């Protein structure tokens, strides 16, 4: 049964979804997104005690090292944030990445890839590949490297894995996806069947965003919509998704395709939860539980070679 905290947050999200609002410019949307979680929980999100954050230039890509206390210095999580490829930054997702890194007991390299519509496909993917190669070139062993991302960042990770395989670069040890956006074409049934239960998005609204990232490319391109990708040779996947979100089938179908390709998959559908509910982990028990489980999965993948 959903927690009382989840009911309060759901009520807040629904009020935002249904309230009439004046259209915001893209710049205004980006500013609002920076403080969205803090506004929802009603207080600032302090950095977890003992966590160190260090800015770093990753071959021209802005990034930050997030190091929880007692993190294993050899093991690294590369994190790609969500925000429909247009929003999100090192600020908006800092709390989520910090909590996941702490749960996994490892450092995280958190990058700020180029966003649409100023930078269309494949700009974000190129930045992600740059960061991946940078980690390997700077001594991170592939068996100690994992990838994680939410929403658009989750789809971007699945695109990155395709390029890594194509270029014969070593694969990471494991991957965690939080409500990944994998179908930018908009054919999955949950965009309709979950439209009323999703407290954050409508299928129509999500569908309107896809072309901003794709530019002139076909939305069916597997590097844009990895629901159409060949997943053979991918590392083990962990997928967490909310039962009530329009993106539900984006996760379910990718999990099915991965199993068909003989890729190990752990899929958890969280009852009563919405898109990237882990963003509210500072106050949401289900978010905390999800991050703990994902963290344990990532620990197992990076220790399997020992």
UniProtKB/TrEMBL annotation:
Coiled-coil ranges (or none): none
Ranges for domain Alpha/beta hydrolase fold-3: 77-278
Keywords, comma-separated and alphabetical: Hydrolase
Pfam families referenced in this protein's UniProt entry, alphabetically: Abhydrolase_3
Top-rank lineage group of the source organism: Bacteria
Protein name: Alpha/beta hydrolase fold-3 domain-containing protein
Keyword Hydrolase: yes
Protein family (similarity comment): Belongs to the 'GDXG' lipolytic enzyme family.
């Amino acid at each position: 049964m959903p927690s009382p905290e989840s009911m309060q947050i759901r009520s807040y999200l629904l009020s935002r979804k249904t309230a009439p609002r004046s259209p915001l410019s893209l710049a205004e949307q980006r500013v609002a997104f920076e403080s969205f979680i803090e506004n929802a929980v009603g207080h600032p999100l302090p950095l977890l005690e003992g966590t160190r954050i260090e800015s770093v230039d990753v071959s021209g890509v802005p990034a930050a090292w997030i190091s929880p206390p007692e993190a294993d210095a050899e093991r690294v999580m590369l994190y790609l944030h969500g925000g429909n490829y247009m929003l999100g930054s090192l600020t908006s997702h800092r709390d989520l990445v910090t909590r996941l890194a702490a749960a996994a007991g490892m450092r995280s390299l958190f990058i700020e890839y180029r966003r649409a519509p100023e930078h269309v496909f494949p700009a974000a993917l190129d930045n992600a590949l740059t960061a991946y190669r940078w980690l390997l070139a700077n001594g991170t062993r592939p068996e100690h490297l994992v990838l994680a991302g939410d929403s658009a960042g989750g789809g971007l990770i699945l695109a990155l894995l395709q390029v890594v395989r194509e270029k014969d670069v070593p694969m990471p040890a494991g991957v965690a996806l939080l409500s990944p956006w994998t179908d930018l074409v908009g054919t999955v049934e949950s965009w309709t069947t979950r439209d009323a239960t999703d407290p954050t998005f409508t299928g129509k609204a999500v569908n309107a965003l896809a072309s901003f990232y794709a530019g002139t490319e076909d939305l069916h391109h597997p590097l844009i919509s990895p629901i159409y990708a060949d997943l053979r040779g991918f590392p083990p996947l962990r997928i967490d998704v909310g039962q009530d979100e329009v993106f539900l089938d984006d996760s379910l179908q990718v999990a099915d395709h991965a199993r068909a390709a003989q890729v190990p998959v752990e899929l958890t559908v969280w009852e009563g939860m919405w898109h990237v509910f882990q963003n509210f982990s500072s106050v949401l028990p289900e978010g905390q539980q999800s991050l703990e489980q994902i963290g344990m999965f990532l620990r197992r993948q990076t220790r399997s070679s020992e």
